[in-house]
Amino acid sequence: MISPEKLREDVDFAYRKLQEMHPNLNWYISKKELDFKFDSLKTTINKPFTSTQFYFKLQPVIAQIREGHLSLRIPAKRFSKKEIKALKNKKGLFGRFEYHVEDDHLYFIENKDSIQNIKPGTELLSINGVPISDYLKKYRQLISSDGYNSTFYPYYLKDVFFNFFVAEKGIMDSAKIETLYNDERQILTLKRESKNKTEIEKDKADKKRTPEKKLNDYVAATSSYNRNFKFLDKDSTIAYMKIKSFSRTFSNKFYKESFEKIKNAESDYLIIDIRENYGGSLYEINQLYSYLAPEPFVLIKPSQLVSRVTPLKTNYFRKSNPLEYTYKSLAYPGYFLYQALNVYKGKDGIAYYKMKENKPTKPKENAFKGKVYVLINGGSFSASSIISSKLKFDKRVTLVGEETGGANDGTVAGFYSYQKLPNSKIDLPIGVLLVQPNITFGNTQKGVVPDIEITQNMQDIIDKIDVQLDWVKNDIQKLKDNKTQN
């Protein structure tokens, strides 16, 4: 337990560091309003809290800054090697299902292992007697999109719901749940099961990096690929690229090989699917854009900093063991020089950070010249929103789906200054670069709006009906039919 005085010190520390590091803190909330929220928070801290309890008080205030990248790290228990080994060979309690969030309701939409015969479409009403709606309302306050778009929340909340739950309740071996399906309520007990020998061997095999796994960026935790490429028709006129994360890992090779296949096949249409892609590397989206651009382009505007010294306040030595500390000490002069040389002051007197992505880039030799569709939804965030915004502004693609979770006019991220609150020891990573697409800003304070708006409901997901992709396929067929008739 940490005293109220110490916790109030942490509130002041957090706000001071945000003002010192964050280049656009009052983008979506005025300084006066934010001052009031932090002052009001301190008046509510009148008794001791644990770090976790304090997290649930401070994070909702930080979320009201409305910067999706800005968030306290959830305090986590430090496990012993013995505990880690024991958990390693056990299956998840709640993590073996896929979920869907609608308002204050949480539904199971996939149950691959047929656990307790829970059917897709079943609503999870409560866990150990506590209504799920209570948790959803509480956890909704802990996250924010960029700005005032609301599409981000159901996608992100379904993915992080049990991160918050475990932080609050701890890791359980069993839980009593209440479910509702076809007006029938059931009380079920979920139990954490041990993995059998076959499953343990499969885990080991999943971790082996084959050439295919490297190229398509295989994620062992979800048994899926971050990147996929294929043709959707027999004559290879429609190319389809699914990118779940702009991780940068082997991205150069993936795009080079994929666009060579497209060129060799003489494809007329390309569909790029970045739904539920939370973002990642600016380098990778610049690389992808270079295969779509008809002429030289600049992806992002110069990236603004609070001051010229901000890049030197990133806590360079954080989480270093003695050996790493020694190595980093030797490398520090080079790091210092690199950061110092990459900062410059503009004619407007503002500090900017040099990045390859805010310099002109030439189109690739194999750049695709045909019709491009990009699928987006509320889970398209950060780098996904940057590239969507730029593509839309340049009128290079047709965007299909939902408004993105990330803002149309950019975000604050780039790289981070890692701060630790002195008393609660909670980590606060603060993005130090204002990253904005090279467009004329709409100042809507919302996400990238699609050209064709199509939403997918829960039954579509359960039935594996992709209404957004189907619309694109139908539109392509119409274009093909028109070509034939002409």
From TrEMBL:
Coiled coil: none annotated. Pfam families: Peptidase_S41 (PF03572). Residues 183-455 form the Tail specific protease domain. InterPro entries: ClpP/crotonase-like_dom_sf, Tail-specific_protease. It comes from the Bacteria. This is S41 family peptidase. It comes from Chryseobacterium luquanense.
